[in-house]
TrEMBL record:
InterPro entries: GlcG_carb_metab_protein (IPR052517), PduO/GlcC-like (IPR005624), PduO/GlcC-like_sf (IPR038084). Keywords: Signal. This is Heme-binding protein. Residues 164-187 are annotated as: Disordered. Coiled coil: none annotated. It comes from Curtobacterium citreum.
Length: 187
């Protein structure tokens, strides 16, 4: 089966956008080993001749702590009408909180920003700058949103999740609140 030029170009563009990562590295809890801190996905021992893959992600306590801290930061600024999503590397929701009077669209926006940051391992404000020109097609990837408001959660250098905020008056403010969530769980 041949890959189309479009698929190859989109894959190349995705790699180009993901090439430079930004965001704080964290150690998640005291339960991670030194080896686990260097990669978010690792191949474990063979089971019946087949490789088994393990994925790292935040624990539920840390995910809720990050979401709560992000909302609290927004509330302190008088912007408690945001939604906050914390997702794992694959975009699966781990924690969510919706502030009072948060509009419906903020739910989806926060989750998509969180997933975009997790998938590409960088803040969505930086990714938005890179998803232009030949890389503009990335903006059409389902489930992603290249607007400020998402930060990557890292274990060492590996992205293991994302925190996304939607609903503040600007993407910069959304990202400030997402960063407050990350700071709450960083060491």
């Amino acid at each position: 089966m041949r890959l189309s030029h479009t698929l190859i170009a989109t894959t190349a563009a995705a790699l180009a956008v993901a090439g430079v990562t930004a965001g704080a590295s964290i150690t998640v809890g005291d339960r991670t080993s030194a080896a686990a801190q260097t990669a978010s996905v690792q191949t474990a021992a063979s089971v019946s001749g087949k490789a088994v893959v393990e994925s790292k992600r935040l624990g539920s306590t840390e995910a809720m702590q990050a979401a709560s801290a992000a909302l609290a930061a927004a509330q302190e600024d008088g912007a408690g009408f945001v939604s906050v999503s914390v997702v794992d590397r694959n975009g699966q929701l781990q924690a969510f909180v919706r502030g009072e009077n948060a509009a419906s669209h903020t739910i989806k926006a926060s989750r998509e920003k969180a997933y975009t940051a997790a998938a590409f391992g960088a803040a969505t404000s930086e990714l938005a700058k890179r998803a232009t020109g030949d890389n503009a097609g990335l903006r059409d990837l389902p489930g992603t949103l290249f607007l400020g408001g998402g930060v990557s959660v890292k274990d060492g250098d590996a992205s293991i999740g994302g925190i996304g905020v939607g609903g503040a008056p600007s993407g910069d403010q959304d990202e400030q609140y997402a960063q407050a969530g990350l700071d709450a769980i960083s060491k």
